[in-house]
């Protein structure tokens, strides 16, 4: 199995895999992919080398252009938990190693999976994925935006909403 550990995941995992003779690329000044390289640069290179990408950057899924890159280049990617220590991250990867080898050898590309901190893996449909956009606070966002409550008018008296001419008592009837 050939892997690539992206910059968001950190070079420690890539070096650890490389140190135990796993064919692993990672972001480093001494490696093919340099720090700061945009995803649009390295995804085609890594995919052409048939490497399984290990990434903590789940935001790749929220970018239509980057998701299209994954699909067009027939990429295999596994998203790892974001807020684990280096040791915990290595433990999760080692617990999932047999499964990682299986999907690398058997799953048709493109594919994406997410591994939870507890080690459960969830398949991600790259083609039909609905991006989770960050909430901008502006009306007209996606259905994933949190619901908005009416704003209270700071100048209004007690029991009055920000809507002119409407009091809370009027809504109770």
What's the helix count?
Answer: 6
Strand order in the sheet with the most strands: 2-1-3-4-5-6
CATH architectural category of the largest domain: 3-Layer(aba) Sandwich
Number of strands: 6
Specify the overall morphology: globular
Key attributes of the depicted protein:
173 residues; 6-stranded mixed β-sheet; alpha/beta; Rossmann fold; 2 domains
Descriptive overview:
The N and C termini lie far apart (about 65 Å). The longest helix is centred in the first third of the chain and has 10 residues, at about 40-50. The chain folds into two domains: about 1-125, Rossmann fold; about 135-173, no CATH class. The model is unreliable at about 140-145 (pLDDT under 50). Helix 1 (about 10-20) links the parallel strand 1 and strand 2 (about 25). The protein has six helices and six strands. A six-stranded mixed sheet has the order 2-1-3-4-5-6, covered by helices on one side. The protein has helices spanning about 10-20, 40-50, 65-70, 85-95, 95-105, 170; strands spanning about 1-5, 25, 50-55, 75-80, 110-115, 120-125. The chain is of the alpha/beta class and about 170 residues long.
């Amino acid at each position: 199995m050939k892997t690539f550990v992206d910059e968001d995941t950190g070079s420690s995992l890539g070096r650890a895999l490389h140190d135990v003779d796993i064919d692993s690329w990672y972001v480093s000044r001494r490696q093919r992919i340099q720090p700061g390289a945009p995803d649009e640069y390295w995804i085609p290179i890594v995919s052409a080398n048939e490497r399984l990408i290990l990434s903590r950057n789940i935001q790749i899924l929220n970018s239509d252009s980057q998701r299209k890159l994954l699909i067009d280049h027939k990429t295999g990617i596994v998203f790892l938990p974001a807020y684990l220590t280096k040791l915990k991250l290595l433990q999760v990867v080692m617990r999932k190693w047999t499964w990682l080898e299986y999907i690398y050898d058997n799953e048709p590309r493109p594919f994406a999976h997410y591994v939870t901190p507890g080690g459960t893996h969830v398949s991600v449909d790259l083609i039909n994925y609905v991006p989770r956009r960050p909430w901008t606070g502006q009306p007209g966002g996606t259905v994933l935006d949190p619901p908005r409550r009416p704003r209270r008018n700071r100048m209004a008296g007690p029991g009055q909403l920000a809507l002119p001419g409407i009091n809370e008592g009027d809504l109770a009837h």
